[in-house]
Design goal:
The chain is mostly helical. The protein has eight helices and two strands. Strand 1 and strand 2 form a beta hairpin. The longest helix is centred in the middle third of the chain and has 23 residues. It starts with 11 loop residues before the first helix and ends in a 5-residue tail after the last helix.
Length: 193
């Protein structure tokens, strides 16, 4: 009977454990076969680094190996993903040309929407058209409020309810009641509450 021991010198249990762990983690992160093999080798290296810590008086070798493969495999996976965070990326140049729907040939860089990119990297939260709609809705809502209600809303933007109530010399219940009355106004203006 032939052994499937990929890493020579290891017992079958250790070899199988490393291979299965690398395959499971690799599949979860959609690694290709080469990346899964790299993951298995890195897990093996981490295991070999901690083997001198094994103390037979404290437990069995299989338990030690199982614990460390499980513990180190996640660390190895994290470092592999961080090192090569775009491992699934399809590489192409932004200078390549593509044909648009109308047949015009343009470079790929002309097809990238700047606001979508800034949203995807977290620089902005919404596009300028959305911001304009929000500003108009808030302006409409503010113009329909009494000066007292406007004052409460502007104070709540920078303080909590307790502080606003204390500053105005009223109860928190009074503030909540005013806000409850403003909800339909916000909804009519298109602002979800």
């Amino acid at each position: 009977m032939q052994s499937n021991n990929v890493f020579g010198g290891l017992d079958d249990y250790t070899n199988d454990l490393i291979q299965v762990t690398a395959r499971k983690l690799g599949a979860a992160f959609r690694f290709n076969a080469d990346d899964q093999e790299d993951l298995a080798r890195e897990i093996l290296l981490e295991l070999l680094r901690v083997m001198p810590k094994f103390d037979p008086a404290r437990g069995e070798l299989k338990a030690f190996i199982t614990y460390w493969v499980d513990k180190r495999s996640k660390r190895v996976l994290k470092s592999m993903v961080c090192e090569n965070s775009d491992f699934q990326r399809v590489a192409y140049s932004l200078d390549e040309t593509v044909k648009e729907f109308d047949g015009e040939i343009v470079p790929k860089c002309d097809l990238i929407d700047g606001e979508n990119y800034l949203m995807s990297v977290g620089v902005i939260r919404c596009q300028s058209m959305e911001l304009t709609d929000i500003r108009l809705a808030v302006g409409k809502a503010l113009s329909a409020m009494t000066p007292y209600q406007r004052d409460i809303c502007t104070r709540i933007m920078s303080n909590n309810i307790k502080q606003v109530a204390r500053d105005l010399g009223v109860s928190r219940r009074h503030i909540y009641e005013n806000l409850r009355r403003l909800r339909p106004l916000f909804e009519d203006c298109g602002i979800a509450t």
